[in-house]
Amino acid sequence: MPPLTHLLALGGMLFSLGVFGVLTRRNAIGILMAIELMLNGVNINLIAFARYVWANSALGQVFVIFIITVAAVEAAVGLALIISIFRTRGTVNADEVDLLKW
Amino acid sequence: MVIFYLFAGAAILSGAMVVTAPRIFHSALWLAACLVSVAGVFFYLDAEFIGAAQLLIYAGAVTLLMIFAIMFTQKVAGWEAKHIQRGIFLPLLVAGAMLGAALLAVKDSDSLFQRGLLMAPPGHSSAQIGMELLQTYVIPFEIASVFLVAAMVGAIILARRD
């Protein structure tokens, strides 16, 4: 087995890549994809601890199942919102959708 | 051991391509590759149920939804790459600082095992997940199903053409 540190580092790297993507992408769908990347980094951390630490329970994996559920919901509702914004404003560029920006 | 590093390297490389690919459609395909690699890591860590769920839900359904949404919202001629680069320096600084903090925090997490934390034995866990999901955590499980129905209805109403 690889050391626990390497798994946690993998999770941290995926999370940082997601943060970078959220900050640089202008397309709203690209931002959603970067958020999925961040959630995957978190899931790797949870699975790593569930595998390495003896706990007599599968709580880590149950937690990951709920995260995957919420991520699927987030993708469905987010993409529906994006399609609806595209219908009314003709763009999915996050810089141009700034009606609520003061 | 080697297999784990292959999957991990593939996940990081394709993850980097997701956030840097100039065309959003390519970025969705790289996202699928990244999610499949992460599923490989899950299988390697004896989490076969989570790996299968990752393949079905993430690599299958979520990526497909993304590709559908991209095809709905891009003008067919509009493949020009104007969706990245609004100042690369500050995002790089923030993400790099987070990565540095994360690596610093996990640097010597293996020493926990020398200080009395017990290492789990290898073994498959699907049966235990099923038991706990329907006994200890049955209320969150039911709430999650109500949540899914609400999200499905909401998504249909939002995306519907009036």
Please, could you describe this protein's structure?
- The complex is a heterodimer of chains A (about 100) and B (about 160).
- Chain A is an all-alpha fold.
- Chain A has a single domain, classed as Helix Hairpins.
- Chain A has helices at about 5-25, 30-50, 60-90.
- The longest helix of chain A is centred in the C-terminal third of the chain and has 31 residues, at about 60-90.
- Chain A is elongated, with a radius of gyration of 17 Å.
- Chain A starts with a helix and ends in a 13-residue tail after the last helix.
- Among the domains of chain B are: about 1-75, NADH-ubiquinone/plastoquinone oxidoreductase chain 6, subunit NuoJ (Four Helix Bundle (Hemerythrin (Met), subunit A), Up-down Bundle); about 125-160.
- Chain B is globular.
- Chain B has helices at about 1-20, 25-45, 50-75, 90-105, 110-115, 125-135, 140-160.
- Helix content of chain B is about 75%, strand content about 0%.
- In chain B, helix 2 (about 25-45) packs antiparallel against helix 3.
- With about 160 residues, chain B is an all-alpha fold.
- The chains are: A mainly alpha (about 100), B mainly alpha (about 160).
- Chains A and B meet through helix 1, helix 2 and helix 3 of A and helix 1, helix 2, helix 3, helix 4 and helix 6 of B.
SSE inventory with pairings:
The complex is a heterodimer of chains A (102) and B (162).
Chain A: H1 4-24, H2 28-52, H3 59-89
Helix pairs in contact in A: 1-2, 2-3
Chain B: H1 2-20, H2 24-44, H3 48-73, H4 89-106, H5 111-114, H6 126-134, H7 138-159
Helix pairs in contact in B: 1-2, 2-3
Task: Supply the CATH class of one domain in chain B.
Answer: Mainly Alpha
CATH architecture of one domain in chain B: Up-down Bundle
CATH class of chain A: Mainly Alpha
Average pLDDT level of chain A: 90
Number of strand elements of chain A:
0
| Sequence stretches where pLDDT stays below 50 over 5 or more residues of chain B | none
Termini gap of chain B: 54 Å
**Which structural class is indicated by helix and strand composition of chain A?**
mainly alpha
In DSSP terms (H or I, runs of 4 or more residues), the helix count of chain B works out at 7
